[in-house]
Specification:
Elements lengths: L3 E6 L6 H12 L2 E4 H11 L6 H15 L3 H12 L4 E7 L14 E7 L2 H11 L10 H7 L8 H6 L3 E4 L4 H14 L2
Parallel strand pairs: 1-3, 1-4, 2-3, 4-5
Helix pairs in contact: 2-3
Length: 183
C-alpha cells in the first residue's frame, strides 16, 4: 500500500493531536505538526512558544519567504518519511496543503468539536503558555486571529470529517473507520 498521508485541519482544541496520537499508537503513524517548525525557530531564538509568538513568527516567515514556505518544508519532511501512515497536523490555510495535494494518497480530514468543548480542552491541556488562564472572551478573540480565520474554509474542503465532541472511545472508533475507508 502506498504511503497514506492524512492532513488534519481543525480549530484549536478540536482534538487533532489526540487523533494523531491514536494513529501513532495503533497504526505506527509518523506525525508532523506545522507549529513544530515555528516552535523550533522560537526555541533557537530563546523565545517562549506562546500563541502570540507563533502567530507573529508565522506571519513574518510567510511574508518574507512566501505563503507556501511552511507547506514546502512539510512536503520535504513527508517525502523523506518511511512510515506507511503519515499525519500532517495543524493545517490552517489552503497554502498549507498546496504541496501535499500532489500525492494521490493525501486526504484532508477535518477534526471538529463544538466551541465550548474546545475551550474547556484548551484550558485543561495547557499546551501553550497562558491557556489555563484563558477566558471565554480570550477564546473567542483567538478564533478571529489571522492564523485561525481560514480554518473553517479549509475544513469545508475536507473529504472526511471526524466529530470529536464525545469521548476518547468514540474518537478511536471514528479513526479506525477512517483508516478502513482508505484501504
Amino acid at each position: 500500500m502506498p504511503k497514506l498521508i492524512l492532513g488534519f485541519v481543525g480549530q484549536a482544541g478540536s482534538g487533532k493531536n489526540t487523533a494523531a496520537q491514536l494513529l501513532k499508537s495503533k497504526y505506527n503513524a509518523e506525525i508532523f505538526v506545522f507549529s513544530d517548525i515555528l516552535q523550533d525557530i522560537l526555541k533557537r531564538l530563546f523565545l517562549l512558544p506562546t500563541r502570540d509568538n507563533l502567530i507573529r513568527l508565522s506571519q513574518t516567515v510567510r511574508q518574507g519567504f512566501g505563503q507556501d514556505i511552511l507547506s514546502n518544508t512539510m512536503e520535504k519532511q513527508v517525502e523523506a518519511c518511511k512510515a506507511d501512515v503519515v499525519v500532517v497536523d495543524g493545517i490552517r490555510r489552503f497554502e498549507d496543503i498546496a504541496d501535499l495535494k500532489k500525492y494521490p494518497h493525501f486526504h484532508l480530514v477535518e477534526i471538529a468539536a463544538p466551541p465550548k468543548v474546545r475551550f474547556e480542552r484548551l484550558k485543561q491541556r495547557n499546551e501553550k503558555p497562558g491557556e489555563t488562564e484563558m477566558t471565554w472572551d480570550d477564546f473567542q478573540a483567538m478564533s478571529q486571529r489571522e492564523t485561525e480565520i481560514h480554518i473553517a474554509q479549509v475544513g469545508e474542503k475536507a473529504e472526511s470529517k471526524v466529530d470529536n465532541s464525545g469521548d476518547l472511545e468514540g474518537l478511536e472508533k471514528q479513526i479506525d473507520a477512517l483508516i478502513a475507508s482508505f484501504k
